[in-house]
Amino acid sequence: MTDLLKRLEREPCDSRHSLEEVLANVRFNGDGLLPAIAQQHDSGEVLMMAWMNREALEETLRTGRVYYYSRSRAKLWRKGESSGQQQHLKSASLDCDGDTLLLQVEQTGPACHTGRRSCFYLSLEADSARISSAALIDPDELYTKGS
User: Which domain does 66 fall in, by range?
Assistant: First the structure.
């Protein structure tokens, strides 16, 4: 944990600090990435986890549209750019260690590339794995719509 994050532990509610200073103390991993959990702002439903680099985080904060970093494509991507299923940022919070981000979002349609509302649809139980939600949109149809 950085000295800044340690110092912020003792700060009172509603105290304000330099965004640049806080971002400089974010603990991106060795690849320059930070796990970002997207949660529906009004229901609390956890929608997905993806990776952000600093550029994705800054673009998200600047524009209010959620950007991630695609490890498979090695580039920045705006959620919904190919599916049309956008995420609009309501709030962003860094955890106490500075190594995980929680995004409160307004999700348009399904968040998952499978066409499901949430990426967390495979329930692991004592003796089996169960599909716990149906697709809202056929994945083949989802990616023909565009943004």
Answer: 3-109
